[in-house]
Amino acid sequence: MTIACQEMTAVPFSWPLQTQLELAAYPTAPACARGHTRSVALEWGLADLADAAELLASELVTNAFQASRRLSEEIPVVWLRLASDRTSLVIHVWDANPEMPARQEPGPGDESGRGLMIIDAVSARWGAYQTHNGKIVWAQIRGADAKRRRESSTRLR
Questions:
Q1: Which of 5, 51, 52, 99 has its C-alpha lying 20 to 30 A from 90's C-alpha?
Q2: 36-45 pLDDT per residue, tens
Q3: Could you give the domains of the chain?
């Protein structure tokens, strides 16, 4: 479910579990985001969300990396912020490019353009909003949603 331009700062930033990671927008940033997100999800007792959280963090940071690289020749920074109420996890990624994300319709041979489709399919809801110095794109996953996804994928096998 897409919720574009809805600000998610009020509730998740008051949640008891939070972490933030600053990443240089290098090609290795998505791998760092995946590792950090998986480790944090496990540490917070959210093992059932770890796979989905890792995928979402990777897609969001990849999109932020690509958006940031269009801004200048310098190596930009992106921020990954995770917040949890112990049952849900919200992944926020900030980059300095104020251009809002737009879903693409890639062809079968295209190597990119599927990030927002993946985010939409994996998250309970997601959205984006502009900040005074860029934008934040966020995605939320919930424990019950992860359990349902696992059960339905098991039935499909």
A1: 99
A2: 999 999 999 9
A3: 12-156 (3.30.565.10)
